[in-house]
Amino acid sequence: MRITDLLKAEAIQLGAKVSSKSAAIDTLVALHDKSGNLKDAAAYKEGILKREEMGTTAIGMEVAIPHAKSEAVKAPALAAITVPDGVDYESPDGAPCKLIFMIAATMDGDVHLEVLARLMQMLMHEDFTAKLKAAKSPKEFLDIIDKQEAAQFPEEAAAPAAKKDGYQILAVTACPTGIAHTYMAAEALQKAGNEMGISIKVETNGSGGAKNVLTADEIANCDGIIIAADKSVETARFDGKPVLSTKVADGIHKPQELINKIVNKEVPVFHSDKKAEGGSSDIGNESFGRKLYKHLMNGVSHMLPFVVAGGIFIAIAFLIDAISGAPQDGNFGSATPAAAWFKTIGGVAFGFMLPILAGFIAQSIADRPGLLVGFVGGSLAATGSTFAAPGGDGTAVSGFLGALFAGFIAGWLMKMLEKGCDHLPRALEGIKPVLIYPLAGLGIVGVMMCAVNPIVGWLNGKLTEGVSAMAQNPALIVPVCALLAGMMAIDMGGPFNKAAYVTATGLLASGVIGENEGPFMIMAAVMIGGMVPPIAIALSTTFFKKKWTEEERKSGPVNYIMGLSFITEGAIPYAAGHPWPVIPACIVGSAVAGALSALFGCTLMAPHGGIFVLPTIGNPLMYFLALVIGAVVGALLLSVFKKPVAQKG
Fold this sequence. Notes:
Elements: H1 3-6, E1 7-13, H2 21-34, H3 41-53, E2 58-60, E3 63-64, E4 67-69, E5 77-87, E6 97-105, H4 111-123, H5 126-134, H6 138-152, H7 154-158, E7 169-174, H8 181-196, E8 200-206, E9 209-211, H9 216-221, E10 224-229, E11 243-246, H10 248-253, H11 255-263, H12 288-323, H13 337-351, H14 353-366, H15 369-383, H16 399-421, H17 432-471, H18 474-487, H19 495-508, H20 518-543, H21 550-555, H22 558-564, H23 572-577, H24 579-599, E12 603-604, E13 617-618, H25 620-641
Parallel strand pairs: 1-5, 3-6, 4-6, 7-8, 7-10, 10-11
Antiparallel strand pairs: 2-3, 5-6, 8-9, 12-13
C-alpha cells in the first residue's frame, strides 16, 4: 500500500503553530477527524496517548510518527503537519520535531506496521525530509512523497495497483423529471468507465425511484463518488468520502473528465451534517446558485406528477363538457356529472401542487424538519391567509410565487433553527424532531406567510391580469410565447428549459376557459417548443442523410416518437455532438412554432403528454400545423448550418 493512498491533501497542515506535544497530537487528530477517517475522535486520541505512555514515537532527525490501532478508525489513513518553529516531542536526540506523521489503523491487520516501516525507510533520507519541511502546498508535499516512494520502491510502482473489492468509482445521476437525462448520464459514465478500465457503478434516481442503489460496503470501498444531478439526492451516506457534485449535463458530456478528477484525487472529502440513515447535505464544491437550482428542482420534480395527472383530469373534464355542448361560463368543466367527477378528482391532485413544491424545496434545504414549514407555507400561499383573515382572503392568494417564497425562506429559517438547537442539552435530543422543530416551525411559517401573502398576493394578481391582457393582444402574447418556446430548446431539459416549463405550469392554475386563456396559450407554446427539437433532428436525419453519420441516421427516427411525446431530451446526443448547428437551429424552430401557436390562438389545458393529449388542445389542427412548420424550419436550418460528414475535419 502506497503512502499517498492513505494521505490526502485535506489531512495535511503546513506551517502549524503548536506549543507542545499535546497540542501537536490535538492538531493531527483534528486533521484525521476533518478528513473523515475517524468514527470517534476522542476514542482515537485515547489510543494515541496510551501509545505515547509506552514511550515517545519521535524517531530523531526532527521527525515523529505517532500511531495507534483503534476501533474508532474507519479505514487506515495518515495525517501530517510541518512545524517550522519545532515542538518538543521528547525526541531521543533532544531535537525539536518539525515533521510529524500520525497513523490511524483499524484493528484488523497490521497496516500501521507496514506504513510505519515504509515511512522509516523513506525518512532516513535527509534530503527527502528537508523537501517535505519546505513544501509550500499539500499538493507539493504529496508529490514529493510520491516521487520518493517511486524511486525507493520501483518494482511496486511498475506493477499495476491491486483492484480493491467492489467498484473504484460510484456515481448517482438524477434530473428533475427523471426521464431522459438521468439515464443518459448513467450510460455515459458507465461507458466512459469501461473505456478507461475503471470499474464504476451508477445509481439512477429516476421517475420510478432509485435503481441500482449503492450499498454501504460499496461506498466504504470506493475511491470516490460522482453526483451528476440537478435535484437533491441523499448524500449523508457519503460522509467521509471524496464527493464530486456537478450538473447532470456534465455526466452526459464530460464523463471522462469527472472520472479523472476522482482518479487523480482532485476532489475534496465530503462531510455531512445529517444523520447517516438519510437526508441530503450541501456539497462543499457547489456554488450558491447551483444549490438554489437543486433546491428548486427538488420541489419541481416532486410537484410534476401532481400537476401532470391533475391537469390532464381537469382537461378531460373540460373536454367532456365541450362535447356535451355545455355553455362556457363559470360552471364550465363541472356542468355534467362525468365532467364534475374528473374536475373534482383532478382538482384535488392539482391542489397539492403548491404545498408539494414548497414542502420539498424546504426539505431539500433543511431535511425532514423542512417538510412541515414547506407544506404549511405552500397551503397558506394557496388559501391567501392573513392576520385579519387566517382562513383565507381571495385578494391575498400569493399562489406560485408565495409557495416559492415559503419553500426557500422557511427552509433556511428552519436550518438556522436546527443549528441553534445543536447547543441544547443532550437530554432534549429526542424531543427536537417531534416537538421543538414542528412547534417552532409552524409558528415561523404562520407568521411569515400571513405577513407576506398580502404583498405577494397583490403582485400575483397583477401578473395574472397582465397575462390575461396579453392573451387579448397578439402584439404581446406572440413574442412572449416565442421566447418561452425558444427557451425550451436552449438546453433541452436544463435550467432554461425548466424555467420556461415551470413558468407555464405555475400559471395554469390562474387560467379560466372563455375568460383568461393566456396561461393556456403559454402552456401550449411551451409544450410545442419542447416537441420541435427532436422532430427537427428526425426530419434532418431522414431527408438530409449526408449531414449525419450512419449511427446518427439509425437513431434519428426514434426522435419522431420522442418529439411527439414531448420528450425534448431525445435531441441531446445530437446537440452534444454538434452544438453549433443543432442548438441555434432548434431554438429558431421552437420559437417559430411557439409564435405560430399563439398567433393561431391555440390553448393547452394539460401540462404534458405531447400529441397524446391532442383532444385537450384548443384549435388542434392549427396547433399541429404550427408544430410541423417549426420542425421543418429547424430541419432546414440544420441543412444549411451543418456540413456534410464527408467535409468535416
